[in-house]
Design goal:
- With 299 residues, the protein is of the alpha/beta class.
- The protein has two domains: 119 residues, ATPase, nucleotide binding domain (Nucleotidyltransferase, domain 5, 2-Layer Sandwich); 135 residues, Dna Topoisomerase Vi A Subunit, Chain: A, domain 2, CATH 3.40.1360.
- It is built from nine helices and twelve strands.
- The strands form three sheets. A six-stranded mixed beta sheet has the order 3-2-1-4-11-12. A four-stranded parallel beta sheet has the order 6-5-9-10, sandwiched between helices. A two-stranded antiparallel sheet has the order 7-8.
- A hairpin with a 5-residue loop joins strand 11 and strand 12.
- Helix 1 packs across helix 7, helix 2 packs across helix 7 and helix 4 packs across helix 5.
């Protein structure tokens, strides 16, 4: 009878910050934990991650093939937004709603001022594009989508060097037919674009919240996808075959495939892990009133 292969013995948690990459090692059989810290490599954070894994493996005495799972928290999305290291993007919306991002929730520090205070708008006015077609709040289509206009927009986006597009149409949470069709047309006529559809990202009422979330998601798609592609390549070259789970803003996890499509869910990935850990530890110690501090180098 052939001996059975030993089961994986180590679980790894990684948090990539703007300054340091932290590695936590858990020996599943004994419950022992070990912590390691290595400088983050900003040009390619996956390089620092692999360096940290190899350092942890050398000092703790395990092989990368012993890892059963890699839990990955990161501030890559957060820092990209804070530092404005974002690609050139565009917003396609229902004609007449191109300025929702600037109008916001009508909040002003000086209520009676003739002009609102300056605010950060991630998509410039020239690339907030209105399109004919109207869906009512009931989900009824009042005005059909102008598909010829969509095809012309696809050519304009390519000519303008746009890398990613957010599509947020009025009442798409009630009926996403027009958004889906725009997604299909863009995939056909401008397949190199990263396209984010609001009914997939945030299918909720309120135009500003849905628009701003979809825009962030679109702008982060190229950033996060490039990182995940490099990470996948480096892990494969190192002989790593265990599943990878990325921590979401709500403290849950998702697959790299989902993260590439919905990177906005990573915006609070780094801080959420610390908050969840503080809550868990406080519960185990029966200390309901706890203040946790997470001091980062960038965010």
């Amino acid at each position: 009878m052939q001996p059975t292969a030993s089961a994986p013995t180590v679980r790894i948690a990684v948090d990539i910050g703007g300054t340091f990459t932290d590695i936590e090692v858990l020996r599943e059989a004994t419950g022992q934990t070990f912590a390691f810290k290595t400088p983050t490599t900003p040009d390619d954070p996956s390089e620092g991650l692999i360096t940290g894994l190899r350092l942890a493996a050398e000092r703790t005495g395990f092989q990368l093939s012993d890892i059963s799972a890699l839990l990955h928290g990161t501030t890559i999305a957060t820092n990209a937004v804070l530092q404005r290291r974002l690609p050139k993007g565009a917003l396609i919306t229902t004609a007449g709603f191109e300025d929702v991002l600037e109008i916001g929730r009508h909040f002003r520090r000086q209520v009676y001022a003739s002009k609102a205070e300056p605010r950060v708008v991630l998509i410039p006015r020239a690339w907030r594009l209105g399109i004919k077609g109207r869906t009512l709040a009931t989900g009824t289509i009042e005005t059909p989508l102008d598909e010829t206009e969509v095809r012309h927009l696809a050519e304009k986006l390519k000519a303008g060097g746009i890398q990613c597009v957010a599509v947020c149409l009025l009442h798409a949470y009630a009926n996403a037919e027009h958004e889906k069709r725009i997604g299909e047309l863009l995939a056909k006529h401008a397949p190199e674009l990263d396209v984010s559809l609001s009914h997939e990202v945030s299918p909720e009422i309120r135009e500003f919240e849905r628009s701003s979330t979809t825009v962030l998601n679109a702008l982060l798609m190229p950033v996060v996808r490039r990182y995940l592609e490099r990470l996948r390549t480096r892990l494969k070259a190192a002989g790593f075959e265990a599943p990878v789970y990325l921590v979401q803003s709500n403290g849950g996890v998702m697959s790299p495939e989902t993260a590439a499509l919905l990177p906005a869910r990573l915006l609070l990935s780094g801080p959420s892990g610390g908050a969840l850990a503080a809550e868990t530890i406080a519960a185990r110690l029966a200390m309901p009133n706890v203040v946790a501090v997470d001091m980062g180098g960038t965010s």
